[in-house]
Amino acid sequence: MTQSREEFEARLRKIGAERYHDLHPFHDRLHGGDCTPDQVRAWVLNRYYYQHTIPMKDAAFMSRVEDPDLRRAWRSRIEDHDGTAENEGGIKRWLRLAEAVGLDPAYVASREGVLPATKFACDAYVRFVRDKTLLEAVASSLTELFAPKIHANRIEGLLKNYDFADDSSLSYFKTRLKEAPKDVAFGLAWVLDHADTQEKQDAAANALIFKTDVLWSQLDALWSAYVEPARIPPGGWQPGEGLLLERAS
């Protein structure tokens, strides 16, 4: 049976409450100050691959949209990450974080050393948005509903527990606290407007579950490679690689 607008929104929010990656134990370690410098670097390096794919995902989505109003509304997402003349963009802010933790930004931007599972998860997200219905593609972005909480917790935890953390290095998260509410308000309203049958609601909910799996699997890969039992797969970043020269010496 088709759910009411209010019931369906509650269903989407329940998915986040049960499956969003803020529940992953890696974030407890990170925000609690229990990660080693190399574990923080591994997280920054691998998360960059996700940041790198977000504007590609959004461009793939826009290439399929025939409605200019929807394209216009979605375009700012690419600009938020890639930057404009007035806004340096999220990718550059993330590279500033990489430099703050001792990684060479050029090395991080090269995407060398990214874990295979990170690549598979992020690339699968791009393919999902490219190949699924527009409703499913938009619904997969609704993890943004739950992002402000994790960004706020991350800012607080990193500032409290790590010497590298300051306004400059954490500017990505602080900026997303301002950008994300706009994006999620539009995306949520669009999904609620267009998921008008049980079949469409089920598809949208499953798309959001898929996206939570994408985020969760990246942290599982980090945990396996760098926390315990710390088995770094072939091609994965090895501590000591890609460091700034002054940190490596």
Automatic annotation (TrEMBL):
GO function terms (MF aspect): pyrroloquinoline-quinone synthase activity
Keyword Repressor: no
Statement: the UniProt record of this protein carries the keyword Nucleotidyltransferase: no
Stretches assigned to the Thiaminase-2/PQQC domain: 10-220
Pathway: Cofactor biosynthesis; pyrroloquinoline quinone biosynthesis
One of the GO BP terms on file: pyrroloquinoline quinone biosynthetic process
EC number of the protein: 1.3.3.11
Ranges annotated as spanning the membrane: none
Key words, A-Z: Oxidoreductase, PQQ biosynthesis
Catalytic activity field: 6-(2-amino-2-carboxyethyl)-7,8-dioxo-1,2,3,4,7,8-hexahydroquinoline-2,4-dicarboxylate + 3 O2 = pyrroloquinoline quinone + 2 H2O2 + 2 H2O + H(+)
Family matches, as SUPFAM superfamilies: Heme oxygenase-like
NCBIfam families referenced in this protein's UniProt entry, alphabetically: PQQ_syn_pqqC
Family the entry assigns: Belongs to the PqqC family.
Purpose of the protein: Ring cyclization and eight-electron oxidation of 3a-(2-amino-2-carboxyethyl)-4,5-dioxo-4,5,6,7,8,9-hexahydroquinoline-7,9-dicarboxylic-acid to PQQ.
Protein name: Pyrroloquinoline-quinone synthase
